[in-house]
Amino acid sequence: MNLRWPRLSIRGQVNLAGLAAVALLAVGLLLGLRAEQVYRAQAARAAVVQAEILAASVTAALAFDDRPTMREYVDALRANRRIAAAAVYDTEGGPLVTYARRPTSPPPARLVDTVAAFRQGAAEVSVPVSEQGVRLGAVYLRTAREPFGDFLGRHSGLAVLTVVSLLMLGVITRSAAQLQRRAGELAEANEKLTVEMRERARAEEALRQSQKMEALGQLTGGIAHDFNNLLQVVHGAFELIRRKPAETEKVAVWAGNGLQAAERGASLTRQLLAFSRAQKLELRPFIVSELIADMRDLITRSLGGDIELEFRLDDDALPVLSDRTQLELAVLNMAINARDAMPDGGRLVIATEVIQVPPGHPVLDPDAYVELSVSDTGAGMPPEVAERAFDPFFTTKGVGKGTGLGLSQVYGVARQAGGQATIDSEPGQGTTVRLLLRRSQTPVEAVQAGRSAQAPVLAPAEGACVMVVDDDAEVRNLVRDTLELLGYRVIAADGGARALEMLAQDQPDLVLMDFAMPGMNGAEAAALARERWPGLPIVFASGYADSAAVEAALGGQAVILRKPFEMDDLARTVAEGLKAQDPTRSSA
């Protein structure tokens, strides 16, 4: 079994080392105390044995009061340098013979009690002298103090261990102090960094606010200019139709111009909503070369007669997964930017090519991609401009001539579809914008079959009833008239609360509901309706819809019809919604 010890921090290591040093010192002291106790016991025992020998030697001398003999035995102890003092006492405790090695203090002047002690490094004992049970006296013995050198020699191991432990404690204490000081310095630096980060955040917020105000000025001027042009076309077209309704051919042309201007306005609105992320891309498989072919006339009209337009479309029909409407708008934005870069005329090339991205690409996963490129022979861009070309609201055009959203929208479409957008440009060498679009796993046949199935659906499901919910009376009436023209029975409500009241009385086959309404928005009304009538089909028809709120209300099964929509789109969406409810219905 592989055991892994937990890693300790520096502070933990210092603490552990300190504990180890203290434990080492404590163990050494305990061993030293134990050794001292053993030494004292042995010294006391040796003194007792020596005293007993002396007592046995002077027994006869005490019995006959032979003091010279006693003196001989006591003086004989002088040869033993460990004996500091000795004496023989009578039965009353009075000294008979004494001896003391200088400068040791003499034996006690009177021996009252038996002595057995170890004081100040010396053993002190007394032993009674008796014969046949009769006490004759006593002998006294005191050893010399142990020299300090002998004491150190005896405890040399303890001394070394103590010194090492103290050194370790000193080093550890110093390390701990340094660690504490560094921790304080780190805390102080962290506090300074926190203050600097707060100040920087405030400065960045002020800068962002300034940039927002600047972008708002650019955005307001550019969008106002674009919308005023669109409204002028729509207003003029309707005014001409009202003044000369009988001229059917001209009415058709005027109506076409108005519809085209309205579609351009809708594209600009969708572009703004895509930037705000309130409206997500509708990713569906399609073939890029077919999309460009469908846009040929629109691009030609947008460029004018001074621009030579060339298409180099790859015959390899590889489907991609993206938002078709947003990609159309991206291509149109790139073409218009190229036109503006060639005020005196030039050449624009739109090309598609299938390329293989190998492993190791910094942004993209290895796969087959369709490269859509738009190249012009215009003035080109310096590096500092090319680096910011994809930034939202960045534009080199004058006020009222651009919003700065075009190339940012191009980049957003590419990235949200799993691809990438790049710019190659040099001053005087023109500009090429490339979009890499990741392929779809849907087979080409299925994509082409789905495209051919997008035929207008103008025949209503038999007997179907549709509820229209919109707070704008003009929009509500227009949608109601359109659905009635298509053959549906229509009931209308001016808000979410009113729609719920009407649903309790008359249940339609499908509800067509606006999102942004006062009081109760469409998502809230749809959620309540689904709670009461779970199988009721609900389609959102809105120019602004929070996709996340709508999907939360309908459990991720939201169908959104973007305003403005054509009659065919309305007819197809309603028919598909009814068919999803009842697969036996016919959608045509």
Number of strands: 17
Regarding CATH, which class of the largest domain?
Alpha Beta
User: Order of strands across the widest beta sheet?
Assistant: 2-1-5-4-3
| Total individual domains | 3
Rg, nearest Å: 53 Å
Helix content: 40-55%
Level-2 CATH architecture of the largest domain: 2-Layer Sandwich
How would you portray this structure in words?
This protein has 588 residues and is α/β, with parallel strands linked by helices. The protein folds into three domains: 10-154, PAS domain (Beta-Lactamase, 2-Layer Sandwich), CATH 3.30.450; 283-451, Heat Shock Protein 90, CATH 3.30.565; 455-581, Rossmann fold (3-Layer(aba) Sandwich). It is built from 17 helices and 17 strands. The protein has helices spanning 10-57, 59-63, 67-75, 148-154, 156-243, 248-276, 288-294, 296-303, 324-340, 383-388, 406-416, 444-452, 473-486, 496-503, 522-532, 547-554, 567-581, and strands at residues 83-89, 95-100, 116-119, 122-131, 134-143, 284-287, 307-312, 319-322, 346-357, 367-376, 420-425, 431-438, 465-469, 489-493, 510-513, 538-542, 559-562. Strands 2-1-5-4-3 form a five-stranded antiparallel beta sheet. It has a five-stranded mixed beta sheet with strand order 7-9-10-12-11. Strands 14-13-15-16-17 form a five-stranded parallel beta sheet. Helix 15 links the parallel strand 15 and strand 16 (538-542). Helix 1 packs antiparallel against helix 5 (156-243), helix 5 packs antiparallel against helix 6 (248-276) and helix 15 (522-532) runs parallel beside helix 16 (547-554). The longest helix has 88 residues, at 156-243. The radius of gyration is 53 Å and the shape is rod-shaped. The chain starts with 9 loop residues before the first helix and ends in a 7-residue tail after the last helix. The model is unreliable at 398-405 and 452-457 (pLDDT under 50).
